[in-house]
Prior knowledge:
The protein is mainly alpha-helical. It has 17 helices and seven strands. The strands form three sheets. It has a three-stranded mixed beta sheet with strand order 3-4-5. It has a two-stranded antiparallel ribbon with strand order 1-2. The longest helix has 35 residues, at 135-169. Mean pLDDT is 75; it is low at 211-217, 384-430, 470-479 and 483-496.
Amino acid sequence: MPSISQKIAHFQSLPPEKQTTFVGSIEDNPEYHLLTQSNTLSTSIDTEIMIVHKFIRDHYSIRFPELETLVTNPLDYAKVVAIVGNGPMDGDSIKALQTSKDNRLGVTLRSVLDGPSVMIVTVEATTTKGREMSPVELDRVMQACDMTLALDKAKRTLTDYVQSRMNLFAPNLTALIGSLTAAQLLNFAGGLTGLAKTPACNLPPLGSKKQSGTGFATNVGVRQQGFLYHSPIIKGIPNDLKRQAMRIVSAKVVLAARVDRVHNSRDGSTGEELKAACLERLEKLTEPPPNKGQRALPAPDDKPARKRGGRRARKAKEATAMTDLRKAQNRMVFGKEEKEVGYGTGEGTKGMGMIGQANDGRIRNLQVDQRTKAKLSAKNKGWGGATPVGGSASSLRGFGQGAGSGIDLRGKGLRASGVGTTVGAGSGTASSLAFTPVQGLELVDPKMQAEMSRKRKAEEDRWFKGGTFTQVGGSGSMGPPALPPSKKIDTGKGKGDMAPPPLPKK
């Protein structure tokens, strides 16, 4: 059975009059099947080249371990290994290889690598840590290099053949995205029929290779980098527009594949029209936005802004609000000069405004917030009234203390003497100080306090002065009344006990 390379040579050697010019059914044409097999084989060759490249790196690292990080292309790496070989690694020898063709490939080192790469390889070769290889090891590496070059040559033969025949089997698709990309998509989709049935949204991922395990980030740039991403029509588009460009081109690729599937427009005119439509839309994407000129400022809105309320907002306002001292400094009394203070020599003075002038030195009354002030009833004027006092004496009382009870102020830093004394209640200069839990230290009117005490005394006399259980015979004793001697009985113990109460009469 002839190989694929032999079949390709057979079809290429046919005279022009015997070559395939009219295609009835593409799937039934033998050359179309050869085209599909060539695409499949080309993909397999790429995999084989990667395997052989790994083999060369592992074995040649004995001689030059730094080379694999300097030359990453598998084909270029194999060519450099074949040129350098096991030769001396000094600077003069490497410089001689740059222009000499006396090697296994018959080419110079400068024809394989560019100028900066040649310079880096020369520097690293002089400081390499490798050792010389044995003849057996060197022969094994050279055979692998020859195999890599042979695989690359076979791949180029297949690619050239596929590109030359794509104009015959898919002229519109080739005109739109190029022969190489068209061949890759046909191979991956299974022919024109499979490509025509593929949804447009599934074309960008075709041919994407995962970069996992290479040590590089995979979330950078466009995620779907397949055959369509590397096509000539997409390469010139900026990176931020490539995804949108691939969506546009994918829809046109499916239309071109359907046209080629039914053998319409064999000259590729439909593909050219689709390409022109794609380029027009892509140019529209890449052109800068039109200059709209300077826009007028919006009309000012004089309405007050809606501000948030609530406890948190009030606290925030209070934290940045102007203090009363600053407000007083910002005001001035009409017709009166304000006081000034100096901040040092050469820095001038600062005006004080109405600070210290509003009350003329008088103590300002306590400002009580009417919304939060404690409410007391008309009858209950506070806890613990003060005893009426007269003259200039005063009385200090606490909560729950009677009129005659004293206060021990020795541990509170106050003198105990002179507190609680009472002078004539009729004097107009008498005052009373009482401690209440509502307002703290309270100043009470003596006349009002005396009137309240008189009313309280009258109420007590009304209910309790004439009772027989509280006072008996005016003795003032609160105990039980004494029994007469005739009511005492002798119990035999020499002591008189209280007689039992008499029985009630029937």
